[in-house]
């Protein structure tokens, strides 16, 4: 087994939505920095109870200049039953050619998504 075998994507989605959506450049940060938002359940909210919730999301960037160099950009941990899985990271977007995110549901496991920039 490889770690990648544990990651689920859009093809595994059922009624509940787990794939982390990545929105680049929605809202400005400080100069040279843009906001990258990672949200789970934008259209169909995921349950948010102590028994079943999105515990965290992580954002990674793939650098433009260095072939396939992956940079860990941040993690947001959510309070079960209270905090919606919706995080904003301020990132120098121009340095990256892609962003990838992970989301962890305590019942349904690890979910992934990537967006490539032009
Ligand atoms: Fe779930």
Describe what this molecule looks like in 3D.
By secondary structure, this protein is mainly β. It has one domain: Sandwich (Immunoglobulin-like). It has no helices and 7 strands. It has strands at residues 21-28, 34-39, 54-63, 70-77, 86-91, 96-105, 109-116. Strands 4-3-6-7 form a 4-stranded antiparallel beta sheet, with no helix packed on it. Strand 3 and strand 4 form a beta hairpin. It is globular, with a radius of gyration of 14 Å. The mean pLDDT is 93. Fe (ii) ion binds at residues 16, 18, 46, 52, 105, 107-108. Fe (ii) ion (FE2) binds next to loops.
Outline of the structure:
This protein is mostly beta strands and 118 residues long. The protein has no helices and seven strands. The protein binds fe (ii) ion.
Percent helix, as a range, is under 10%
Bound chemical compounds? fe (ii) ion
The CATH first-level class comes to Mainly Beta
Structural class: mainly beta
The termini sit apart by: 33 Å
- The total tally of domains equals 1
Number of helices: 0
Q: What would the principal axes of the Cα set say about the shape?
A: globular
Overall mean confidence score, pLDDT: 93
In terms of quaternary structure, the protein is single chain
Lateral arrangement of strands in the main beta sheet: 4-3-6-7
Number of strands: 7
**Annotated CATH homologous superfamily:** SOR catalytic domain
The ordered string of helix (H) and strand (E) elements is EEEEEEE
Low-confidence stretches: none
Major sheet:
4 strands, antiparallel
- And the CATH topology? Immunoglobulin-like
Radius of gyration: 14 Å
- In the CATH hierarchy, the architecture is Sandwich
């Amino acid at each position: 087994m490889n770690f990648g075998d544990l990651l689920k994507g859009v093809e595994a989605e059922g009624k509940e939505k787990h794939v982390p959506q990545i929105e680049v450049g929605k809202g400005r940060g400080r100069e040279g920095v843009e906001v990258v938002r990672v949200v789970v359940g934008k259209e169909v909210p995921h349950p948010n109870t102590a028994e079943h919730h999105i515990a965290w999301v992580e954002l990674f960037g793939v650098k433009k200049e260095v072939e396939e160099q992956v940079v860990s950009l941040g993690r947001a941990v959510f309070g079960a039953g209270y905090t919606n899985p919706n995080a904003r990271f301020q990132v120098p977007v121009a340095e990256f050619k892609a962003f990838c995110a992970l989301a962890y549901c305590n019942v349904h496991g690890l979910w992934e998504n990537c967006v490539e920039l032009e």
